[in-house]
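This section describes the prediction task in plain terms. A model, or a person checking by hand, is given the sequence of a single protein chain and must write out its three-dimensional structure as a string of tokens. No templates, partner chains or ligands are provided. The sample shown here is typical of the held-out split.
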Amino acid sequence: MSATTTATAAATTMKLSGRAFYESIGSPKKIIAPMVDQSELAWRILSRKHGADLCYTPMLHARLFAESEKYREQNFLFDKDGQEKSDRPLVVQFCANEPEILLKAARFVENDCDAVDLNLGCPQGIARRGKYGSFLMEDWDLIYKLINTLHVNLSIPVTAKIRIFPDKQKTLDYARMVLSAGAQILTVHGRTREMKGQKTGLADWQMIRFLRDSLPPETVIFANGNILYQEDIARCLEITGADAVMAAEGNLYNPAIFAKPINYSTSVPPPTGIDELFPRVDVLLREYFALIRDTPGEATRVAAKSHLFRLLRPFLAVHTDVRATIAKINRSTTIEDYENITIEVEKIVANILADEENQLKDIVVRSEQPIDDSGAVYKDIPYWRAQPYFRPVSGQILYGGKRKGDDEHEKESDQKQKKDKQESSA
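The expected answer:
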């Protein structure tokens, strides 16, 4: 046996696995998902401040990361990303279809994160063309090799994020294969590959429960999908039996989605105020501005515009002049420009709340009856506060309900969503 092989085997034997690894990073319950160009350092720090326990980086392209120094510099600040005091625990996610290239990429971040994750869930066309993400779901041999190569050769654990098949048994067999390859944590997005865009639909929590009940108890499972309010986290944990809950879109529209402690032993009382659970957009924007000022780089520049559109979405539907200003953000936009946007939003919100009538409206109104069998309820939240975005599908609201007096807004939501996408990618 060569010295290299011996060292690799020793590293594999020494590193923590499964539940021991999960416990070593604090048994996190509230997790920020890996989001392309969206879960960058500034946003992770903001989310941690508002209650997130564990964060994933944006999905990184393994070949580009392995072969391009410029790509690495643009997407991972080695003197800032993964720092112990501000950005841990951290999982770095890659998309890949070549085991050795994936290993080469992972080697660059091996000492700057707690685990490396393989993206097996991306359903977008670019993943189909590149043959990665959910478009590897039929190639189980390749998936096994990708995961096992990291498992055998890295000094830190490998994890995997998957989507489900329509068939229960096939989903279970798939999960077992991924775990047998060496994945130490399994994140299950409860949607199929076809469930995207207008076909998104609700994530299947019962399928995640089926996996929980069918896999060994020591298997660590993260549940992903349907998280819009803080209460959804506890419901998801109860219904799925998962160890933790991961949020993506819900976090983008309200980074305080994880504000309430979940199953923690703590003397700190859980937050109950509107300012903690649904912060004002001007307050969040000021916090975010301070972070992007201190986390310079291409990843921040690329993400900022999209974050502003999502963070301010309900606000921009009313104050369209601010929307127009954000739409003009481009490569020449300076930190002073972001400061001016922040100041403008702060002035507008201050004027709103100077009105006594608006002060009386600054409350959250819950629906009287659950809106589905899981016990979910809908909340009407003032537009100057962060709140969920209900994705319209074929003109229908999938989860929640229409707000009284908001019919016209919902009729226009499809058009605005398309506009947001065009503007955020400009």
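For orientation: Residues 167 and 376 are 26 Å apart (CA to CA).
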